[in-house]
Every structure is written in structure tokens, then in C-alpha cells.
């Protein structure tokens, strides 16, 4: 080992953050830094870290910040990383974290050699709707029932609620659903107001039914999938001009 190699080894040994950055560069993984409000739900942060790892990203440091945006922000620092930032933002939306704004932070093009992104958690972390949808799959019966009742009472005529519940059935997310969560989502969808459905939502719903059937759930869940298909068949949106 020459002097340069020894200096390199000493540097990364003394600096774990640098070591992770070097390792990510060598493997081609995108570094993702998480920035969260000082008062935040650690479970949401841990869940996002796990989802990033499972999808080929390298989650880095978690930094507490005193000022946070109103919605999730995904920041990138080189114009060449725009497509990567947009892809990750779409994943975060599908993982049901709500709205995600993608922002280019200029002035770092010549200073950043690594492909790295930042995800900024908003104040409150999630909208009330997103929290209710998450709670449909809670282990605690009482929490789950209250969330289902709130969705039933307030969101059956909401296209946004339909969209966010459908996100649970994307391939990246459905494998994390419990049998209760899978049933509850379909039960909500099959009882929504047909007038607020769109062609895009119908397409997503049919894909959700197919994804559900591939999981081979129990008869109660299959019955809800059947009811949802009947609702969709009555929309005639696929024939809209």
C-alpha cells in the first residue's frame, strides 16, 4: 500500500460519512439525505429509510432542522440529476407520503461530484388524509376502526382520497399491506361516490384489483375486489372521448 492509499484509508476510517459516500459512489447508488423537523415521528423516518434501501438507494444522515417546508420536498443539486429526482419523487408519492415538490438548488453544480438528493419532511409530516390511510393498516383495532370511520364519513366523495388509497396497491407498496389493510382499502374504494372517479383512477383501480388477486387473499377481500370491479364497470369512463 503506497502513501496515497494509506492516506485514503486513514481518511475514510476517521470519517464514517465520507466512507459511506465513497462506497455509494463505487456502487453507483444515489445518496439520499433526510431532513426532518425537530419534533417528528421517528417511525415515518425509519419506514422511509427502509423503503429507500429496498429500492436501491443509499439513505444517509438524518438531520434535524428548525425550519421545514409545508409539503415534502425532494431537492437535487445538478441539472443532470433531474430525472433521478423525479423518479424518486414519484416513488415517495406512491409510498403514500402525500404531495412531493421537486426542486433544483442551484449553485452546487461544480461542488457536488456525487449523485445525491435530499428529502425534506414537512411540518406535521403528513396530511390528515395520509395519516388516516396509514391507520387503516394499524395493528391496534381501535385505531384502525376510527380511521376507517373517519374515511367513510369524510372522504368517500374525494378523488384525492381515492388516489391515495389506490397508491397502497402499487407493486412497491402492496407487499407491505397486512390482510386487514388490503381488505379495508378495497372496502373504502368499492363504496366511494362514482361521480368523482376519472379515467386515470379507473385504470389504477383495475391494476389494484389485479395486484390484489395475485396476492391470493381470503374470500372477504376477494368479495370487495369484486364489488370494486362492479363499480368500475358501471362508470363507462373508458369510453369517454
Can you walk through the features of this model?
The protein is α/β, with parallel strands linked by helices and 241 residues long. The N terminus is likely disordered. The protein has 2 domains: 92 residues; 112 residues, Serine Threonine Protein Phosphatase 5, Tetratricopeptide repeat (Alpha Horseshoe). The chain contains 11 helices and 5 strands. The longest helix has 16 residues. It has a 5-stranded mixed beta sheet, with helices on both faces.
Poorly predicted ranges (pLDDT <50, ≥5 residues)?
1-9
**Secondary-structure content class:** alpha/beta
Give the number of DSSP strands: 5
CATH architecture classification name of the largest domain: Alpha Horseshoe
- In the CATH scheme, what's the topology name of the largest domain? Serine Threonine Protein Phosphatase 5, Tetratricopeptide repeat
- Order of the strands making up the biggest sheet: 2-1-5-3-4
Report strand %: 5-15%
In short:
By secondary structure, the protein is of the alpha/beta class.
What is this structure's SSE topology?
Layout: H1 3-14, H2 16-27, E1 31-37, H3 42-54, E2 58-65, E3 72-76, H4 82-94, E4 100-104, E5 116-120, H5 128-135, H6 141-154, H7 159-167, H8 171-174, H9 179-189, H10 199-214, H11 219-233
Parallel strand pairs: 1-2, 1-5, 3-4
Antiparallel strand pairs: 3-5
Amino acid at each position: 500500500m503506497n502513501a496515497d492509499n494509506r492516506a485514503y484509508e486513514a481518511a475514510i476510517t476517521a470519517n464514517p460519512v465520507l466512507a459511506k459516500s465513497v462506497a455509494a459512489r463505487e456502487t453507483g447508488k444515489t445518496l439520499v439525505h433526510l431532513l426532518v423537523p425537530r419534533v417528528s415521528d421517528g417511525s415515518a423516518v425509519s419506514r422511509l429509510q427502509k423503503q429507500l434501501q429496498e429500492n436501491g438507494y443509499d439513505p444517509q444522515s438524518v438531520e434535524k432542522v428548525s425550519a421545514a417546508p409545508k409539503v415534502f420536498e425532494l431537492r437535487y443539486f445538478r441539472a443532470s440529476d433531474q430525472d433521478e429526482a423525479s423518479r424518486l419523487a414519484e416513488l415517495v408519492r406512491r409510498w403514500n407520503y402525500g404531495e412531493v415538490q421537486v426542486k433544483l438548488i442551484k449553485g452546487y453544480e461544480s461542488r457536488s461530484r456525487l449523485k445525491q438528493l435530499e428529502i425534506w419532511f414537512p411540518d406535521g409530516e403528513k396530511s390528515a388524509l395520509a395519516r388516516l390511510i396509514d391507520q387503516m393498516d394499524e395493528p391496534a383495532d381501535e385505531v384502525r376502526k376510527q380511521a376507517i370511520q373517519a374515511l367513510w364519513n369524510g372522504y368517500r366523495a374525494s378523488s384525492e382520497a381515492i388516489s391515495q388509497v389506490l397508491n397502497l396497491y402499487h407493486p412497491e407498496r402492496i407487499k407491505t399491506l397486512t390482510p386487514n389493510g388490503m381488505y379495508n382499502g378495497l372496502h373504502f374504494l368499492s363504496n366511494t361516490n362514482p361521480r368523482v372517479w376519472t379515467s386515470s383512477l379507473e385504470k389504477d383501480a383495475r391494476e389494484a384489483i389485479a395486484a390484489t388477486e395475485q396476492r391470493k387473499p381470503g374470500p372477504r377481500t376477494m368479495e370487495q375486489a369484486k364489488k370494486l370491479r362492479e363499480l368500475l364497470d358501471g362508470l363507462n369512463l373508458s369510453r369517454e372521448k
